[in-house]
Amino acid sequence: MSSRLDIYTLQLFVTVAETKNLTQAALVRNVAPSALSKRISDLEANLQTRLFHRLRRGVEPTPAGLALYHHAQQILGSVERAEIDLADYTRGIRGHVTLLANISSIIQFLPRDLRLFRERHPDIQIALREAATPAVIRGVSEGSADLGICIASMVPHKLSVHPYNADRMVLVVPPGHPLLDYDAVTMEEALDFDFVGLHSEQVWTNYLVAASHSARKPLRMRIRVPSFDAMVSMVEAGHGISMAPIATIDRDRQLGRIVTIDIEDAWTRRVLDICHRETEMLSSAAKLLLEHLCSRAFNA
């Protein structure tokens, strides 16, 4: 059994679990679909359990598949960190920190804060990765990231948290939209219009769904796109209105492609926390970065 539970097989398995499609996973991993399918079938045979339900339009992990997925993430994360750490020693780098952060903090706060940190600690390497809040929490909880920055209200009690900063969500509309007659609107008023949605931002969708239920109005999600940049293009073209952290669309606002309107609902003001596992589990480099980011809280 162990002879087939190698790193490459785990990488293939994780890609299939995340894409839920053998053909797409094969493209991502640059391997023939037939070879990938056989590798997964051999893995199931060696483990003596089914890892995926085969569906008409893809695959879905079984409970056993989900269990292996979580173990595989931790294993691959550890291997990646080991490779990075060993490579760093050869280059004279004395530490490595993996930081997961939502797009709002990456755009608004981290560029300056990380520049100051690197000036003080040039021998510490930082791997900064963008992730939505659920993925940040999962990465920190499972150990694939040392630190995370995400929406405070969603962080579970098992993680340690420190206040970092705050952002706010705004309504995004095309120039000339009827809502521009108002300085600020409620989400109940905004729900009278079609929305452009985001595939990858489940938290964003949850906000709108909750607002829809509270206002007892339907959420008219006419089109979904993969990124904030694509969302801006669709709003600009008149496909609907949307919502975003103000920093993510500020450049497009300044260029006149879209216009922002303040939202009166209190939940649009969001606190961002730094989260991590037990402090004693952090490396010296991670502790230094944590201390630095805490000292920079709310643009200190």
Report what the structure shows.
InterPro entries: HTH-type_LysR_regulators (IPR050950), LysR_HTH_N (IPR000847), LysR_subst-bd (IPR005119), WH-like_DNA-bd_sf (IPR036388), WH_DNA-bd_sf (IPR036390). The chain is α/β, with parallel strands linked by helices and 300 residues long. It has 12 helices and 12 strands. Strands 3, 4, 5, 6, 7, 10, 11 and 12 form an 8-stranded mixed β-sheet that branches. A two-stranded antiparallel sheet has the order 1-2. The chain is globular, with a radius of gyration of 22 Å.
Helix coverage percent of residues? 40-55%
Mean pLDDT: 89
Return the CATH class of the largest domain.
Alpha Beta
Question: How much strand?
Answer: 15-25%
What is the strand and helix layout of this fold?
Elements: H1 7-19, H2 22-29, H3 33-47, E1 52-55, E2 58-61, H4 63-91, E3 95-101, H5 103-108, H6 110-120, E4 124-130, H7 133-142, E5 147-151, E6 160-173, E7 184-185, H8 187-190, E8 195-198, H9 202-215, E9 221-225, H10 228-236, E10 242-245, H11 250-254, E11 259-263, E12 269-276, H12 284-295
Parallel strand pairs: 3-4, 3-5, 7-11, 8-9
Antiparallel strand pairs: 1-2, 5-12, 6-10, 6-11, 6-12
List its traits:
12 helices, single chain, D-Maltodextrin-Binding Protein, domain 2, alpha/beta, 12 strands, LysR_subst-bd, Arc Repressor Mutant, subunit A, 300 residues, eight-stranded mixed β-sheet
